[in-house]
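Good morning C.,

I know you're traveling, so I'll keep this short. The sequence:
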Amino acid sequence: MPPRATSDCGGGLIIVAVWALFFLGLLAVAVAAHVSTNMEVAGRVKRRSLAGNMAKAAMAHASLVLTSNTNEWDALDENWSHGDKDFRSLPFEGGFGRVWHTNIEENISITTNYGLIDEERKINISLPFNNGPILKSLMVIVGGLDGATATEISNAIMDWKDADDDERDGGAENPYYQGKDPSYPCHNYIFDSLEELTLVKGVDESLFSRLKDSITIFGNGSVNLNTARRESLVVLAHSWGATTHVSRSLADKILDYREQGLTFSAGGSIDEMRAEILDSLHKMVGLTIEEQEVLQKMINAGQLGIRSSEFRGWASGHINGRPVDDRTVEFVMHGQDGRILYWRGD
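The tokens, ready to paste straight into the viewer:
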């Protein structure tokens, strides 16, 4: 009997030892998985941090390119716009950075170029402050609205920006916005973001989607003849009462001039710039009397220029051996001093 009792005790110890080893094994697996996860997270954080620094360095390079530009004009054939050499692959330790932009053409095709794109190619909905006729033409030409609806929405935008509580025809002030659910105040100042336009009476997501690639809140309010989108030129001409046909014909001739590799470059006074622009267009593409008259009005009013002041781009950081960029930042930069005016990172 005693030997049998001893055998049972030994078997029990073996079973306990086996279970202990089993639980220790589970604990080891759990610890290993936890450590592996933490190491993976740490590695991902390290990669994003390194890629973020590369993106910032690429932005600094873009600032250098812009601030080194001494021309009295800005055009799309310059390095800041089409600069594969300057922006495609900037080598850094452990990877590289790049600066690029996308451009949506009128046929809805999307092109990607290395470099920056200026904001003065679009219609500024904030500046000049009193730009009701331009806003109305924007709603008609780009938004596809009828004249009455376009007038109401342009008035609502003007009400959104001005400091008074006087409601324009079809517009809206605080009582309208306070009556919404949820309610919010009328801004009574220029736009802080492009998406803010969707808060304005009459601007739904469908209309905003049609407008967003043609509008900006950056720049000084004038449109650069050397970079302008076709619809920007059409909108400005139309806002002076030109017919749609005349507006489009004038825009096409300006783009035809640029497509010949020509640039508007005369600086100085408005008179000097106007004379150079009209003379150059007459010689190279020809202008009708109606086109000349509306173009003069646009230049005299300061709606057209040959320089750009603010530029947009996407800066990416790419770690060597990785299939995609590890960090991308969208930004808007002031061209003269490189100040960052807008920043949105992933």
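Safe travels,
E.
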